Amino acid sequence: MVDYKKIGLVNTRKMFAKAVDGGYAIPAFNFNNMEQMQAIIQASVETKSPVILQVSKGARDYANQTLLRYMAEGAVEYAKELGCAHPEIVLHLDHGDSFETCKSCIDMGFSSVMIDGSSLPYDENVAVTRKVVEYAHQFDVTVEGELGVLAGVEDEVSAAESHYTKPEEVIDFVTKTGVDSLAISIGTSHGAYKFTPEQCTVDPKTGRLVPPPLAFDVLEAIEKKLPGFPIVLHGSSSVPQDEVDIINSNGGSLKAAVGIPEEQLRKAAKSAVCKINIDSDSRLAMTAAIRKHLAEHPDHFDPRQYLKPARESMKKMYIHKIVNVLGSNDKIEN
Ligand code: G3H
Ligand code: 13P
Ligand code: ZN
Fold this sequence. Notes:
Bound molecules: glyceraldehyde-3-phosphate, 1,3-dihydroxyacetonephosphate, zinc ion
Mean pLDDT: 95
Shape: globular
Strand order of the largest sheet: 1-2-3-4-5-7-11-12
Largest sheet: 8 strands, parallel, barrel
CATH topology: TIM Barrel
Oligomer: single chain
Helix content: 40-55%
């Protein structure tokens, strides 16, 4: 049993309370490799932002859960070396699919876990979430639950159809489970193709697809039921069209990729939404930089030559999210 506090990690409790009070959101960035982790930590240190490093099933399959957990331990030391005396870094399991997965992460030093029972019947979601909370809270590990289903055409966590969270269920769910935060469905979804072209309108000036707005009425109804309770938004990448263009003009083929407009995320971050999950934008930044670099330097074959600009590009994107979208900068005192 590893005590996450001994390796310098923190849970989400204080972080979320401050974010809800302060009208900003904590970035939850997925990481799968060293370059992503370095870019996330550099961005969070330079902006003095707390940060959530999150590990998905895909990441565990790709990189190995043990290795990622030791990378997070290394991330704390790396942040200190970069000049942050008291880093606020959470190591979070993203979309935990069972009690056993959550337990194994808690036992190995994760400071926060998500149990995603959103695809289960309501009573089963309550039961498994409560079981995870009972185990996690013994070790002061915080737990995120989910109510409502996010649609998405990519990733193992996607569903064919979205179902918005029902505001009439949230009090019962939070009370029965004891979760520390609640992920909700208000129209976001995973991956780089969040909406079909049929769901969008076309901006006559740019010819770009404009997605339908998020269901802020549902968010407001949930906030009324649970005043001040930490709310989480998954599927919150914006799918920057300049990155999509770089990919497509350097041999890629991403058609009709569309994300959540940043002004809507800015609005959400000012509400009780205190954790915003971003993965796809990092994938796009990395892929665009690598494709561009290799197209311009066909003779390069040392991975460091193209991973360096990829890391720089991800870092720029993370800083932009922290400062211009979530507002979590300047929240850590050194
Ligand atoms: O929640 C979804 C994340 O983007 C992770 O996806 O399981 O492919 O790593 P992944
Ligand atoms: P995106 O695919 O929009 O980046 O969402 C990531 C996410 O929700 C991880 O849990
Ligand atoms: Zn997610």
